[in-house]
Every structure is written in structure tokens, then in C-alpha cells.
Amino acid sequence: MKDHEIARRAVLKPIESIASASGIGKRYLEPCGRYKAKVSLEILDKTASRKTGTYVVVTGITPTPLGEGKTVTTIGLSMALNRLGRRSVSTIRQSSLGPLFGIKGGGTGGGLSQVVPRDDISLHLTGDFHAVTAAHNLLAAFLDNHIYRGNKLGIDRERIFWDRVVDVSDRSLRHVRVGVGGGESGIERSSRFDITAASEIMAILALADSLPELYRRISKIVVALTEDGEPVTCADLKVAGAMTALLKDAIKPTLVQTLEHTPCLIHAGPFANILHGNSSVIADKIALKTADFVVTESGFGVDCGAEKFFDIKCRYGRLVPDVAVLVSSVRALKAHSGRFKVSPGRPLDKGLLKEDIGALEEGCANLEKQIENVKTFGIPCVVAINRFGSDTKREIETVKRRSGAAGAFACAVSELYRHGSGGGIELAEAVVRASGARRNFRFLYPAGLPIKDKIETIAKKMYGARSVQYGAVAESDIALWEGLGFGRFPVCMAKTHLSLSHDPSLKGRPRHFDLPVRGARLFAGAGFISPLCGNIMTMPSLPSRPLGEKVGIDSKGNIKGI
């Protein structure tokens, strides 16, 4: 049975019932229909004295087009922990419409480990992405209007950093001209569009832990420089209040349920290869005070989403993780050997479906590096093998052996996709054991280091780079941000998610490579510097056959094709 058929046949419980079981009182719910609800931030004050739950982050090996199953594991693990008698909640990001209609699809899990209502979650949910888009573009409109109306702030039109966003993948918008023709059309200049998930507003939404902090962070956004080289902020343009008003509901997480009625909080959706790639601090703080275990997901591999989870989200949110679950699969590890050609949307290489211990042994180098990366942060690492029907006993034993030798606390087989919570008992028990193990959580670098030192620490310790090579624009950008007093910000690396390096063709564990940095963007409201490595794009494109071609509505009004 296909994922959408499983989801459609599910019997959902009223959202009030899900909230009650998770310790969220009815007074804190703002229902959006029968099966989803916003959670009021008032609950944070009312639950502040409660014991904090165990904090589990799900991460993965370097992704392949095969998919490793991180979201399935996040959702299914929370169900399995609940089955063991540990009250649990999962927290995940909201899907962007770009990948949904492009090539990746939605982010609701799959098989018997899904969150529902599936179609609602994939399409709009409660409108948070639209609120972020509106707030972002309102600031862009105020900026252009200010220049058109006389430019009292003396904004340098050659040093404007704030562009526009839209939540679809559209390569035609990567470079645009606005105000074409001048006059009543405005001031003509070059600009661009990013995808909404790459908006600084999205990053701020994920990092703010209150409405006042949301306003403060928005106020600090640097949109441009003056002709004298001074920062121009959102507060200077007097639009921070209006933007916050647009986001007053978006700052509240949305409560939904899994197929087994375990609570799940969905909130924010920053991309992990551009921004910090994690769901919101607010959702996690609510969950940590209402559950015994909180299972959250970071984007892509340890080197992308998890490093940013530790160094940015946990730093700003004052959060302390207890366990990391590192998701892998036999076929993905074999793909990391470089012996097989794997393309999105194409049939699997038949070699991946046959036992190949040699290819697996080679690909396990990536697993070992990612285990090493987790251990750098001082918390136990549990490896989850997302099992497929073609996996052999020898292959499973090989992954377990290599995981143990690399220092993993445990390695467990997961069949959460096929069996729901029943397929994750071994993994859940390993996580419970790991939660009692000795840990000493630490950041990768102190905030006070110069920007280049932070970049090089990440490049060498997380990626395995030999050195970092800075282009002329990067040198200029870094000097500018440090000169303006932003050098103490954490670093949020923007690079491909498909390799430990900057080059997506380098699989496994690349060594002796130089990491090129071609620029560095300032996200002053979010509170980080984003170095641009290699050819990373902030606006994705559609494939030759977008998934959106299959989406439609049947005669009964049911959405099909997601």
C-alpha cells in the first residue's frame, strides 16, 4: 500500500484528545479544524517549573538521492518510545512547497511512520510559510519605497542585501531587475528571489522563543549599507512592527498526530544547506516540558543540520541535547562507495539490491566520519540502520561492526517504515539506554573566535578539509562584517548536502580537499554569518519532470499525487 493510501485510511483522533494525552491543556489550543491546532505560547510560562524531558536529535549520514529515512525515524522513534511507556513528542520542520512540487516531495514520513493529516501538512498547513513570505516581501517593499521617496537614510543602492522570496522553485527568479523603466515603476536595480525556506525571517522564526524576541530579532535585520558604510536595519525603515503582526500566529507551533496518535509539533522550515535546518526552539521547549522524551530532526547529515543544531539552535535556545540518533541504510552506504550511479527519480541501480560487502565497507567511511562528528559534541551516538528488504544479514552485521569500532554507543536495526512503532523497539531501547550514559555536551567553537577561525574549525573538524580558500568577495565580506561588529556571531555554513565537501560528486569520506568560500552573507536578526561554499544556490530549480505534474484533486475533493 502506498504512503498516501495508508495516511488516507488512518482513523484520526480529535486534536484535543492528542493534546490532553501529551499534557497540553485545552486552554492552550487554538484549533484549526478537527485534526490540527496552534499551541499558545502561554504554555511556556505555565510549564516552566516542570521537569525537562530527554532531548534526542535525529541526524544522518551524508544524504543520497535514495533517502535514508530521517523523518520516518524521527516520527517512528517517538511512537516506539511511547510504546515503551515513555511519553514522547516529535518535533519536525514544515515542508516547503518548492521540493514538494519539485523532486523531493513532502516531509511527513512514510509507511506506518507518518504524521497526519498528510495532505494538510504538505500543502500550507496553517499558513506559516505564507506569513513568512508576506513579512519578508513587506520589508523589501518598504526598502524600495524608502529609496523612491527620497532616500533620507542615504542607502547605497549598490549595497542592498535584502531581496524577495517565494515558496516555489523557480530558476528564472535567481537574477531579476526590479523597477524596470524607472519613474512610476520605482528605482531600477538588480535583485533576486530566494526560496522562502532560505529567508532570514524563517531562520528568525525558528530561533526566537517569544513574540517580543521575534520583534527584537526582526528589528536587527540589516537590509543595506548607507553611502557612509553604516548598517541600515529593519527598525530604521519602521516596518518591524508590521512584520511581527504578520507573524503573530506563525510563531505558534502546530500540533498534529502520528498514525499511532503520538503528538507531533510542526514549526518553521529553514533549509539546512543554506540556513540552520532545524525546527523551532519554541516547539522543542514546549515539548521538553510536556513529554518524557522529545525527538527532533535536524536537516541532512551531521555536517550540515546537526552541526548547526548544536552550534546555533542549542546555543541560542539554551538547549542541552542528550542523545543523537544517526540514521543510515545499507544501500545508501553502498552508494557512498562511488561504485553506483544514483539519480533522483531514476530506477535503482540493480547492484544496490545485491549483497556487496566490498562496496559497503568502502561506503562505511562516511558513517564513521559522521559518528566521529557526533562524538565531537560530547553526546552518545546511536546508529539506526533503516532496513530494506534487500539487506542481507552479513551487510547488517558489517554496519554494526563498523559502527561499534567507530565509537557508536549502540547500533540498532529499524523497521519503522514497515511496522510502525513495533519495528523500532530495538532502536527505542538503545536510545533509552544512551540517555543514561555519560555525556559532556560542548559547542564546536567559542563564539568569540574570529569568523575565519570558526569557518576553518568547521571545515577541518566536520568536513575533513585540508584548508579553506577564500575568494576576493569572501575576504571583503568577512572584513566588512567583523568591522561592523558582527564577528562574534556563530557561523552557518551554506554548502551542498550531498557530500562532506563542497563538491556533490565526492562521496564517502573525501580527504585532502580545499574548501572554497566565495562570499559571506550576514543574517543579523537571526544572529549568524553564512559563508557560501562552492556553487550553493539559494533558489532551487524544477527538474525536467516535476512531481507537481502528478498533483490534482479527484471528484470527491481529495488531493492526489503528493
Structural class: alpha/beta
CATH architecture of the largest domain: 3-Layer(aba) Sandwich
Distance between the termini: 15 Å
Largest sheet: 12 strands, mixed
Shape: globular
Query: Domains counted in the coordinates: how many?
Result: 3
CATH fold descriptor of the largest domain: Rossmann fold
Mean pLDDT: 95
CATH superfamily of the largest domain: P-loop containing nucleotide triphosphate hydrolases
CATH class group of the largest domain: Alpha Beta
Strand content: 15-25%
**Rg value:** 23 Å
Number of helices: 19
Write the layout of secondary structure elements.
Layout: H1 3-9, H2 15-21, E1 29-31, E2 37-39, H3 42-46, E3 54-60, H4 70-83, E4 88-92, H5 97-101, E5 109-110, E6 113-116, H6 118-122, H7 128-148, E7 155-160, E8 164-166, E9 176-178, E10 189-191, E11 193-195, H8 200-207, H9 211-219, E12 222-226, E13 231-233, H10 240-246, E14 254-258, E15 263-266, H11 281-288, E16 293-297, H12 302-317, E17 323-328, H13 330-335, H14 357-376, E18 381-386, H15 393-405, E19 410-414, H16 416-419, H17 425-435, H18 451-463, E20 467-470, H19 472-483, E21 514-523, E22 528-533, E23 552-553, E24 559-560
Parallel strand pairs: 3-16, 3-17, 4-15, 4-16, 8-11, 17-18, 18-19, 20-21
Antiparallel strand pairs: 1-2, 2-14, 5-6, 6-14, 7-12, 9-10, 12-13, 14-15, 21-22, 23-24
Helix pairs in contact: 4-17, 7-8, 7-10, 9-10, 12-14, 14-15
